[in-house]
Amino acid sequence: MSTLRRGRSFDRIVVVVCDSVGCGEAPDAAAFGDAGSNTLAHVIEAADPYLPNLASLGLGHIEGVPALGGVAELRGAFGRMVEQSAAKDTMSGHWELMGLVSKCDFPTYPNGFPREIIEEFEKAIGRTSLGNRAASGTEIIEELGAEHILTGAPIIYTSADSVFQVVAHEEVISVSELYEICETARRILVGDHAVGRVIARPFVGDAPGSFRRTSRRRDYALPPPGPTALDDMVAAGFSTHGIGKIRDIFAGNGLTSWEKTASNADGVERTCTAVRESKGDLILTNLVEFDSVYGHRNDPAGYAAALEDFDRSLPALLAAMGPRECLVITADHGCDPTFPGYDHTRECVPLLVAGEGVRSRALGTRQSFADLACTILENFDIESSRPGRSFLDEVSA
Question: How many CB atoms lie within 10 A of CB 323?
């Protein structure tokens, strides 16, 4: 729970969510079929990435993360957080980071969507469809992409997450029409079938082997079931800026401005620019490629390379920040690329806090992602009864 304090510790807080970068099985991982998962540890063991900047912030000192060498002096606070929401998806993770714990999971369809849903969808869009099963996105495009090009029927697939994904070649179904199709699906998928997200997945290429998904993905998410810390901040007169998937995840709620990204590198660069241009009192960024490009594709080497790229970008991000600004690096769930299957894993997430005004210390294991929201609200003197426990006094120099 946040408490009211006098005067801010930080003028701006920047939160970077490294999508899926979990740090070890959660206490209830077995109930999700994820006992033994550990995204960071298994990527480090498989590919030995060089992460000196993350190591200097304490990454290798977090429980569940292997020790990282070459650190002369720690310069950040470090710990991990446990999710209380009854899910392991992007939305519930982000919502809880912003103080909204969800106890109801979204419906999933491991055997595909009911025929009545597909029939209603096909009638509404005036096209038949292909697929309708749980699958890897890249694999189902390779398998059904040529038939889609021939027939014009969009490919439908899902995963262990609560998603209805619609795939179409950009020259067969225009991106604008694909978005309209997804909006139609979003209107249909309500009530008992209210999936967390409908996702537009455009791709290009001439034939199997050359197919690739483009950056024009768009998510149509259910709005959060209640206000989040973003809404609290806006109501108190503060500005909030979302970068990457943030607008989609929160359905635009609680954001005063936002921008999309094309890649992790683009997300970091836009975050640096947003800091320099003071685009928000709170800047919230999602870096999705860890999850979408490497975790779901079971690519630990690619995942390791993406971590190295992010690590190399950290000095520029920290240099963009002023003396009274704070950077928080965390995640929303795991997606262990060495684990069986292609789906998210129920894991704790890392918590790294950095900035000139941040003390170097261990923050231990936090019992809710909502501790971050409580910390943010306390920093901005916003009274709150949200679940969680602020760590502001622990990190403030």
Answer: 9
Domain 12-105+223-395 CATH assignment equals 3.40.720.10: yes
In whole angstroms, give the CA distance from residue 265 to residue 205: 24
The answer to whether 217 and 202 have CB atoms below 8 angstroms apart is: yes
Homologous superfamily of 115-221 in CATH? Answer: Phosphopentomutase (3.30.70.1250)
Between CA 204 and CA 290 the distance in angstroms is 21
Q: What is the pLDDT of residues 354-369, one digit of tens each?
A: 999 999 999 999 999 9
Give the confidence band of 69 by pLDDT, cuts at 50, 70, 90.
confident
State the number of CA atoms in the 13 A half-sphere of 10 facing the CB. Answer: 31
Q: pLDDT tens digits, residue range 236-253?
A: 999 999 999 999 999 999
Residue ranges of the chain that CATH labels 3.40.720.10? 12-105+223-395
Residue 30 neighbours by CB distance under 10 Å: 12
Which part of the chain is CATH 3.30.70.1250?
A: 115-221
CB-side exposure of 391: number of CA atoms within 13 Å? Answer: 27
Residue type, 176: S
d(CA 106, CA 390): 28
Distance of alpha carbon 208 from alpha carbon 218, whole angstroms: 23
Which DSSP string corresponds to 12-78? Answer: EEEEEEETT---SB-TTGGGGT-TT--HHHHHHHHH----HHHHHTTGGGSTTS------SS--SEE
Q: What distance in Å separates the CA atoms of residue 265 and residue 284, rounded to the nearest whole number?
A: 15
